[in-house]
Amino acid sequence: MDDTILNFIGGSYRQGSERKTFPNFNPATGEQIGLVQEASADDVADAVAAAKKALQGPWGKMTTAERVKLISAVATEIERRSDDFLEAEVADTGKPRGVASHIDIPRGAANFRMFADVISTIPGEAFTTDTPDGGQANNYTVRKPKGVIAVICPWNFPLLLMTWKVGPALACGNTVVVKPSEETPRTATLLGEVMNAVGMPEGVYNVVHGFGPNSAGEFLTSNSEVDAITFTGETGTGQAIMQKAAMGVRDVSFELGGKNPAIVFADADLDKAVEGLSRAVFLNTGQVCLGTERVYVERPIYEEFVERLAAAGKGFKPGVIDDPTYLGPLISAEHRDKVLGYYSRAVDEGATVVTGGGVPKVENAQADGFFVEPTVWTGLSHDSTVMREEIFGPCCGVIPFDAEDEVIALANDSPYGLCASIWTENMSRGHRVAASMDVGVCWVNSWFLRDLRTAFGGSGHSGIGREGGVHSLEFYTELTNICVKL
Ligand SMILES: NC(=O)C1=CN([C@@H]2O[C@H](COP(=O)(O)OP(=O)(O)OC[C@H]3O[C@@H](n4cnc5c(N)ncnc54)[C@H](O)[C@@H]3O)[C@@H](O)[C@H]2O)C=CC1
Ligand SMILES: O=C(O)/C=C/C=C(\O)C(=O)O
């Protein structure tokens, strides 16, 4: 793998104009594996200018069918080069290959393919209107791209979350400037090769590397030629970006943090609930915005559930071996410090550590990786910090409950509103409780089961807007209503 990670601007790979670099680490070994060329303010301005110019060039003049052909070719090319994407994603994130090969990379391709389908089949809206003079008018809407979209991404599912935004943005005829997380620059950069290989016009897809404040992230959101900003990441960052978006009254789409609850009723199929929640708590080492960190279990099955979830947690071994019983590292030493801070705080707040709570022993090339133990707590109060703040690690607190109304109130008592899961064999209860959750997405007897056509996003501190299927079009297009007096 090339050690130097470059910006991709106007169809060409470029160093940063100030020749500043920052290191890229493999979280599984703690080793530095590359240097990233940081984009300067001028580089970011160039990328935005290239994106703007592309809107006036061949891209802006293409028919939907021509754009769809190119976007579908991007999906096919990602699939053809899936090994390269896999290597790049695994190097940046340290996640086991099995996770990246089943989730991150296929979703990277699917995100382009699905939005190519959506844009090909979306119907228009039309109304015939009676007019005051006894005549009629016909109203119909046309969709237009918003323009240059800034796409700011996190590190937990780098290709998946970036393409989830780039796919619909391009399908709607926009151009993009992507700012990947400083922790995971590789797959966004590699996608530039794919764009060139399929013949995407230059400037349609651009990538600038760097950090947030006073770096590429802020340069991008402050650039007045950017027409809208889409972001996935931490709630506080969303607030900072929103302030920049206010300049020029630009639209935002935010998918932010969560402190997602699961509710397990006594009539749940316990095998399914334990299997589902062991994924919801531990998958991707808990670095999933949809992950479960609060589990409410009805009292008659509480003890058994805790024992079985803890056994599932204990069953994971630290490492990146391609075997589902292995759990990868956290993304960075800094993030590990944050998670371990919550591990100690849980004890200070009165938790019983049923399993985990520390750093595992790893005796191989990954001895310096950023691993933590999968952790299950009981005894925490619903109001404790650990049960209220997003940790983003492989851990959860389990709390017993006695009544449906009580647990609905507990689950909804959070400033976040991203997702929830309900586990019960009583389907009328499943529907009822799911509908009472103040969240964007609620699963019943499953978790992270995704149909890309559905609305996806969160309420409250978890985000603004919904993306997915036709819902993405609300953000990535402007509607013009045309009224023709007959
Ligand atoms: N999907 C999610 O909900 C995610 C949540 N997180 C949470 O966020 C915490 C911090 O992780 P970070 O990667 O530091 O998240 P972050 O929200 O700070 O960073 C995400 C992206 O935003 C950029 N960014 C940061 N500040 C910015 C600014 N002022 N203007 C423009 N761009 C900016 C970053 O460079 C990165 O590309 C994690 O510990 C975790 O709790 C992190 C990743 C994903
Ligand atoms: O399936 C999706 O579109 C998104 C999944 C995961 C996240 O959004 C996340 O962890 O940030």
From TrEMBL:
PROSITE patterns: ALDEHYDE_DEHYDR_CYS, ALDEHYDE_DEHYDR_GLU. Residues 16-481 form the Aldehyde dehydrogenase domain. Keywords: NAD, Oxidoreductase. Gene3D superfamilies: Aldehyde Dehydrogenase, Chain A, domain 1 (3.40.605.10), Aldehyde Dehydrogenase, Chain A, domain 2 (3.40.309.10). The active site is at 255. GO terms for molecular function: oxidoreductase activity, acting on the aldehyde or oxo group of donors, NAD or NADP as acceptor. It comes from the Bacteria. Transmembrane segments: none annotated. Belongs to the aldehyde dehydrogenase family. This is 2-hydroxymuconic semialdehyde dehydrogenase. It comes from Aurantiacibacter atlanticus.
